[in-house]
Amino acid sequence: MRAPAPLRPAPLPEGAAIRRVEQPDTVWYRDLFTRVGGQDWLWFSRLVMSHAELAVIIQDPQVHLYVLDIAGTSEGMLELDFRQPGACELAFFGVSAAMTGTTAGRCLMNHAIPAAFAPGIGRFHVHTCTLDHPRALEFYRRSGFAPTRREVEIVPDPRLAGQLPRDAAPHVPLLD
Hints:
alpha+beta, five-stranded mixed sheet, 4 helices, 26% helix, globular, GNAT family N-acetyltransferase
């Protein structure tokens, strides 16, 4: 995305609020990261980092973390990484299984686009993969992102490496 795309209005779920978390605690962050992406989508990259390595990233002033809170519980996350000059990466984006299929994801994206472009960047980008939600790529396209390239990346299954439980993402075959 090279310029802010038009927002697609969606009501915030009842009792929900989007708030920025500055200087997030690594234990709290890993819990949210796992609930949003670990159980269904095999997010593991932040789980294999030491707490010190993770803190360097998520507590960097150029990394902005927003959460979707519902009744005091964080049920979604939006992480904007401004560390590359002139650009913003949508580093992590998602909602918990309880919020999938509601307007929560759209609300987070409606927050992400203006927040990403506010500092005057020229490029807002996201990476997705085949392990993501089956409708993720179309969601990103409807949000204004345009695919630019494909890459092949092969990583060890985090369930076999013990970073996630073996029963995580049951829709993804586990090959011992």
